[in-house]
Write a structure and sequence with these properties.
Blueprint (H helix, E strand, L loop, with lengths): L18 H11 L3 H10 L7 E5 L5 H7 L4 E6 L2 H13 L5 E5 L12 E7 L7 H14 E12 L8 H12 L9 H10 L5 H10 L2 E10 L2 E8 L7
Parallel strand pairs: 1-2, 1-4, 2-3, 4-5
Antiparallel strand pairs: 5-7, 6-7
Helix pairs in contact: 2-3, 5-8, 6-7
Length: 236
């Protein structure tokens, strides 16, 4: 690997290698199997399909996907998250999930081309330049017309409104310690992680061989993108 290549195996911002962060993650984030099933339906995932979940965390989506498709590749840079997700899948006797230690920039997909790639609340761990590289790599992993779903903290307020909007977002979302992500967690996200503007994500998707089929803007801080691969985008 060239010495300029980004090391995406190290944790940025919140440390998801930390055992306490893993143990409390589902309580803080909330999991919703019904929403995951609805997403799988939206993606058109069927029994023969190959799904990749990048930044799989505790494995909630990957496990739900495994019930509906041929094989899931559950990828994460955190060995602790992967261990937790692996145990959870084993408890449910699911054998069609391959757990892989790697990230957007380091995971090497050696399975069949994916019918769908899902990444929820993980893409913001990369700086914008590297988001572009990650999209090229995900394009290469997908079959023609395969689907990409990105859900994340995405900014859709004007830059000049950042102070008011960020304060309002934290006030809206933060919970007391033990009840969810705290003010300090959200501050870490804004300060140390790389959530970016919607127009940057849209521009990157359009330049890396994706068509945005549906954009769901939940509020000024959250947007989902449902996309299809419409052109090859090889990194050569
Ligand atoms: C906020 S959690 C999201 C977990 C899960 N996708 C969910 O929606 O609950 C972010 C996850 O992304 C992982 N992560 C961080 N940087 C990453 C990278 N460069 N590539 C892949 N995963 C990464 C973290 O280890 C963590 O498990």
């Amino acid at each position: 690997m060239a010495d300029w290549y980004y090391d995406d195996l190290r944790q940025v911002g919140l440390d998801f290698e930390n055992a306490a962060a893993v143990a409390t993650y589902d309580r803080n984030q909330g999991t919703d199997a019904a929403a995951d099933r609805a997403l799988l339906e939206q993606l058109g995932v069927g029994a023969d399909d190959v799904v990749i979940d990048v930044g799989c965390g505790t494995g909630a989506f990957a496990i739900e996907a495994a019930r509906h498709c041929r094989i899931v590749y559950a990828v994460d840079v955190s060995a602790s998250m992967l261990a937790h997700a692996r145990e959870r899948a084993a408890r449910q006797a699911l054998r069609n999930i391959e757990f892989r230690h790697g990230g957007f920039l380091s995971y090497r997909h050696d399975g069949p081309p994916a019918d769908a790639i899902v990444t929820k609340y993980a893409f913001h761990h990369l700086p914008d330049f590297w988001k572009g590289v990650a999209l090229v790599r995900m394009n290469e992993m997908l079959r023609t017309a395969g689907r990409l779903f990105i859900s994340d903290v995405v900014i859709s307020f004007p830059p000049a409104e950042h102070r008011r909007e960020i304060e309002a977002w934290i006030a809206r979302m933060a919970r007391p310690s033990g009840d969810g992500f705290t003010v300090a967690d959200f501050a870490t996200h804004v300060r140390d992680e790389y959530s970016t503007y919607d127009w940057i994500i849209v521009g990157l998707l359009e330049r890396t061989g994706f068509r945005i089929d549906r954009k769901m803007r939940w509020d000024a801080a959250y947007t989902d993108y449902l996309c299809s691969k419409n052109a090859e985008c090889s990194a050569i």
